[in-house]
Amino acid sequence: MSATAAHVDDHAHDEHEHHHKETFITKYVFSMDHKMIAKQYLITGLIMGTIGILMSILFRMQLAWPEEPFTVFEVLLGKWAPDGVMDPNAYLALVTIHGTIMVFFVLTAGLSGTFSNLLIPLQIGARDMASGFMNMISYWLFFLSSIIMVMSLFVEAGPAAAGWTVYPPLSALPQAMGGSGLGMTLWLVSMAIFIASSLLGSLNYVVTVINLRTKGMSMTRMPLTIWAFFVTAIIGIVSFPVLLSAALLLIMDRSFGTSFFLSDIYIQGEVLHNQGGSPVLFEHLFWFLGHPEVYIVLLPALGITSEIIATNSRKPIFGYRAMIASILAIAFLSTIVWGHHMFVSGMNPFLGSVFTFTTLLIAIPSAVKAFNYITTLWKGNLQFNPAMLFSIGLVSTFITGGLTGIILGDSTLDINVHDTYFVVAHFHLVMGISALYGLFAGVYHWFPKMYGRMMNKKLGYVHFWFTAIGAYGVFFPMHFVGMAGLPRRYYNNTNFPYFDDLQDTNVLITMFAIMTALIQLVFIYNFIYSIFYGKKAEQNPWKSNTLEWTTPVEHIHGNWPGEIPSVHRWSYDYSKTNENGEYVIPGQDYVPQTVPLQENEEEMHH
Amino acid sequence: MTVFLTIIVIALLGITLWQMSKIVRLSQGVGEDNSQIANDKDNNTQGKIMLAFVTFFYILMGYCFIQYRSYFLPVTASEHGIEYDRLMMISVVLIMIVQLITQVLLHYFAFKYRGNKNRKALFYADNDKLEFIWTIIPVVVLAGLIIYGLFTWTDIMNIDEEEGDPIIVELYAKQFSWEARYSGKDNVLGKANVRFIQGINTVGVDPSDSYAMDDKITTELHLPVGRKVIFKMRSQDVLHSAYMPHFRAQMNVVPGMITEFSYTPILTTEDMRKTDYMVEKVETINTIRKEKSKELVAKGDEALEPYTFDYYLLCNKICGASHYNMQMKIVVESEEDYNAWLKTQETFQTKMSAQAAN
Q1: Could you tell me which residues are beta bridge partners of residue B252?
Q2: Distance from CA of B170 to the nearest CA of A (A)
Q3: Distance between CA A157 and CA A276 in Å, rounded?
Q4: Does the predicted model carry a pTM greater than 0.95?
Q5: Closest to B348 measured CA to CA, from B236, B207, B224, B164
Q6: Distance between CA atoms of residues B322 and B337, nearest Å
Q7: C-alpha closest to that of B139 among A411, A338, A365, A398
Q8: Which residues are paired to B172 by β-bridges?
Q9: How many C-beta atoms lie closer than 10 Å to residue B177's C-beta?
Q10: Which of B27, B47, B254 sits opposite A346 (nearest CB)?
């Protein structure tokens, strides 16, 4: 290992010496530098996020004030909102694209893409990713798929509108809904490209973590961020290809007359020739990715918060090994729980029993993680930087949202809350809001590393508290609306007088949603302002132990000007004392990974 | 209204920007610490807000449970629903206990250990015993829940046609309506396939199948109280889901295959209407509808009809533009009323011969 690392060092170093001439194109556009690619991912992700959140506000307005005309609708939706009243097809399209964009483009690419790229080389002590070229291709494929997804919004018959899960036959038959025509084709093409991008990225991350760790950086000395990114990449490699096959088979059913998912269909006065396929097969293929996807979204967020909570508590993360074991257990279990999305899909009920069992098992490592976070705070010296607030917020929403998973994961209880707003509330808290908090935490924490400047902390505080109140204000009452049996993806509820008394709550939820969305402008402003006018950052603003803070503030190709530093300890020696009660390094409550073992110091066997 | 809202939004945006620039200016005050790293003062304030926040959160939770208690579904109208509700109750109580304990610990620790220059964090990296305890507690609790849940699940999903003299009813779904097919005297549904759909034969019953002759196709679902019913579900176009929340029942309807669900209704529509819960709920809803009607009449629209409770079946799997209005009325009544109603429905044979005669 060390021999390889040394070899790579020399080589990368040489390259760096001869590599000073950079044009605008190679530096900012087709860059192969992992730090620039990370920024590209982040900004693309944030733009997609803005689109996704805006969409959610539009359909929340329709839900709160059904069929009320709004000028915003007229302006933004055009012919899809005749006289300013949203069309049912437009509603479904908004819901669908909101889901797709948020899950894949923001929380997969925007979160994992950004921070895996930024942190893997920096935190393991590598000059760059194993393959910078592949990394660049990965970003540009992602960019291309984003463009296609956005373009699909402007198709004549409307974008894909069959829900983000695109279950056939609805998604396969243009006769069933307008969005299943060209809009759906573009959706599938975009996703196929996205999967290619994600796979290229993931392979790169795995190879980099395995091969390019610096001297002394054993697997059990890696920060939990890297563990999380590493395992996330593995889950991605295992499950994304299955989604690709589902997408390919769906393309064939749609365009080449095959019958993988279609059988016995009579639509618009006509019997289709398809025979023998099953939509349930698609559901299996979709959720074989779809469920691990939840963890692809969540694990990086948990990794980021592990690092941030430890740093800002000035304490080691509690139960480092248990945390790694939990990540591994979650990763393994995540690939065998997909059936809990399908308890009432018509699959064999016995399978339902098995999936209930595996699903509730996954609660155990999740619980361990939550308890370990809480214990890390205990007797700490908490520094409430905005990143820390978002991390604590994540633990809070992760618990709140995770607990309702116990209801949904139980096949019996799922019968009556399946596909209601209870589900919507559950997954938004546990993966949507939690992962977004992870993203924000990451941006606030590593902004100095990315842009060499600090974000404004006061604006960060405002951003966090309003978001925290808004997020619970939106999603906690939503559980109760779901308990009443209100189905999701309903354009309005006025056809069921039974739901009339829920209307006030729907208005309340929408109000909170609008408030939460508006407060994100504070973040956008802070982000853009700080890139140009933020206070110049010092090298290690958060007094952190990890390797990225040993690099100079100014970005250079190859990360470290001289030799790559070697590592002598794990990354969590915060507030470590000798037997006499003094800090290991007198007057300093942290010991960076690059510092060799001191005299009298006891090595931890964590 | 629209203009008003637009103005509010623009005004709010303006205020936001103004406040932001103000905050930025304030935060860059001369001589002040503007490192943008949390100092003792920040830690103190933020720690206290943590405490305020958890208070807000507890009030929100309490408010929801009290204010929205009428949102919980009424007593179950099916036999297995009793078990379902009990399991749900146990799970909700357990979840809320864990929620209340962990949230208060998390936020209280955040407040209690808010940093300052003189505080020294405790280097505390591991405790096997502690970790063992909080691994084993969820294991035990979840094992209990899993076992309870699985027994109930097997009971619900074990659909035995031989047992308890069930009536067999087909639920037929299409964009965007439901039909029911009763199996008639022989209690056997005739064969069916979408390829037989023609004219009046809207659900594609095989006209050559002798079992099909006494089948009755209806647009309302009537069920006798106290008698087990087995639903066989078919869809002619896309996925649908037959969701009957008051019966704690749901099953997807999948084109190309027949899915099943079974339950025994135990509460007639009349009885359900008379429950305190429903009387109160319907009253609330009618007050709301009256208010809304006033607005509508003022605008020159028709007033809303007053609401009486009926069970319903609704589609709960996205199925197209009118997914939100794909419903069927369910009536649970005494065996006599049910039989009387069924008698008034035409058999498939009569319908087909009537069509042939035309």
Answers
A1: B241
A2: 15
A3: 29
A4: no
A5: B207
A6: 33
A7: A365
A8: B179, B234
A9: 15
A10: B254
